[in-house]
Amino acid sequence: MKKRYLLAGIGGIAGAAVAYKLATREKETSWERHAAVLPFADRSEFAEVDGVRIHYQEFGEKNAAPVLMIHGYSSSTATWNNAAPRLAEAGFRVFVVDLIGFGFSGKPAWSDYTFDTQARMIVRLMNRLGIGRATLIGSSYGGGVAAAVALDNPERVEKLVLVSAACNDEVRNFAITKLITLPLLGDVFTPFLTGSKTYIKARLRSSLNSTNYHLIDEDRIAGIMRPLQSADAHRALLVSLKNWHAERIERNAPNIKQPTLLVWGENDKVIPIHNGRTLHRLIPNSQMVVFKNCGHLPHDEYTDDFIKLVVDFCKDQDSNSGE
Q: Is residue 290 exposed (0-12), middle (13-18) or buried (19+ Cβ within 10 Å)?
């Protein structure tokens, strides 16, 4: 009897904690609320695309060759904080974009947050910014989005850089994915996971190679967590996972005709290297570079080498777009 009362008491406390967490979280992510502590806040701009406020940052000269950089799942423009300014210094006009539902872009309840929807947003943002054609650089989930743009709107893509890119549905087999996409459980767990420094640190440790754990500090953790504390962000995270359909990227990879640079870490645990090798085999005009002692984030783990690689690829006059 006492044990039953104890369990009931624990259940009541847990239920109260969940209710409090859900009731006290922000309803919407606000750039204005965090702008004072955001890196490169002075570079932030907003454009309306299909009624959604899209956040992006711009670096470099207006007349330089345009490059769009697209972040990964649950990430934001912050993932390019080291790489974007360096790429601009190398002579490019760099746009770093927050996808719909992520970072400080809008998170509408009506969106399905699929790769195709995100790709359409990128193209329409390019229209708003007056960019006819650009090199796209996509990391992880953003790599899948960039590849979808290249497949659906090949005339808009000069060259393609896919960094540890999502190209199939293997991520749906992860235990954490299966857990939080279960009915109701995701709504309960997501606010606690995104609000936990311990969990974010563990995710970083699974993303980085062990030799690069020194990159995990309070500023990095805070930068990841800031745009993930609101109800609309939690909803977007869940819907994106539930509607994760990236298998067409791999299936249609032979139709990607643009010069494509595949960049992978040899010890990537998130999207293992066999995915990159498959894409390299399937994409006709592709080259692949593997970073040693590197995990899922080559652009962060070895920024200098990554920038040199991308600059050389983008400025290579011998490669043609094939269009």
A: middle
